[in-house]
Write a structure and sequence with these properties.
34% of the residues lie in helices and 13% in strands. It is α+β, with helices and mostly antiparallel strands. Helix 1 runs antiparallel to helix 4. The model has no long low-confidence stretch (mean pLDDT 95). It catalyses: epoxyqueuosine(34) in tRNA + AH2 = queuosine(34) in tRNA + A + H2O.
């Protein structure tokens, strides 16, 4: 065993823990051979809908060495976002990941801190942090690194904490000790498939993104198709149904990240409050919120569809 590799790996994992990451796993950087045909089939079926960005950078999406020259390792990191408080049950629903501040900047700062620590401890190491904003297959890398398995709802799931967490990557030109994948523990369970309000999980492990409520309420800029009217149970932004019904999520524990603490208004707003919210109030009450991705106009469109 290469002692420096082992030492560096232990240092990185300890640093990830110190900075509040839920888990850290490491894989050898390279081409994702198994994912390539899957991604191609998924795109050919038009399961990405109007998310045209999914078609871009196909090669880079499958090979981080094209994103970070001479990269050797992909460090995958998990950040818990499961809340301790929940919305008023009689209101328009918002996905739990969007309760607090936008996760992109919050997590990226933490990942960059790990890179700075690596440079201080080890020397001149080049790397790049990725948090859901670049063409990298985050769930595939996290699964390859043993942080969980890809569930039938296509989310990464772990036995200890379920699936309510964000995934980030740090790709570096440093050789490390590598983790192996874990086993699939979905078994014969089909809870997520059975519960999906729009039948977006077309078969185990395959999600038609263009039918997902998260797609309709966040990504789709046009009007929501009339054939799903009445099917999606007051979800205004995102959807957690396939995670809420997953048996492994009974092990979810509340996060300890102050930035993800829910905006108070988000917890107590009634349907009437949401229906009457002005653009000015929306911008003032929800600064730095993931809700801004849909913008005020998108939120109003979603609410009008639900009324």
């Amino acid at each position: 065993m290469n002692s420096s590799k082992e030492k560096y790996t232990q240092f990185i994992k300890a640093e990830a823990k110190r900075l509040g990451f839920m888990a850290c796993g490491i894989s050898k950087a390279g081409f994702l051979e198994e994912e390539a045909p899957r991604l191609e089939r998924w795109l050919n079926q038009n399961y990405h809908g109007q998310m045209d960005y999914m078609e871009e950078y196909f090669d880079k999406r499958l090979d981080p060495t094209l994103l970070v020259p001479d990269s050797k390792s992909v460090i995958s990191l998990l950040v818990n976002y499961y809340p301790s408080e929940f919305q008023n049950p009689d209101t328009y629903k918002i996905s739990k990941y969007a309760y607090g501040k936008d996760y992109h900047n919050v997590i990226k700062k933490k990942v960059v801190k790990i890179l700075k620590s690596i440079k201080r401890e080890i020397g001149e190491v080049h790397g790049r942090a990725f948090v859901d904003m670049a063409p990298i297959m985050d769930k595939a890398w996290a699964a390859k690194s043993g942080l969980g398995w890809m569930g039938k709802n296509s989310n990464l799931i772990t036995q200890k904490v379920g699936s309510f967490y964000f995934i980030a990557q740090l790709v570096v030109d440093l050789e490390l000790e590598y983790d192996g994948p874990t086993t699939d523990h979905c078994g014969t369970c089909t809870a997520c498939i059975d519960a999906c309000p729009t039948q977006a999980i077309v078969s185990p492990y395959i999600v038609d993104g263009s039918k997902c409520i998260s797609y309709y309420t966040i990504e789709l800029k046009e009007n929501i198709p009339s054939d799903v009217k009445g099917k999606y149970d007051d979800w205004m932004f995102g959807c957690d149904v396939c995670q809420d019904v997953c048996p492994w999520n009974k092990f979810s524990k509340p996060h300890q990240e102050p930035a993800f603490k829910a905006y108070p208004e988000l917890l107590y707003y009634s349907k009437k409050d949401w229906e009457e919210i002005t653009e000015e109030t929306f911008a003032k009450v929800f600064p730095n919120s993931p809700l801004k991705r849909a913008q005020w106009e998108g939120i109003k469109k979603n609410i009008n569809f639900l009324k």
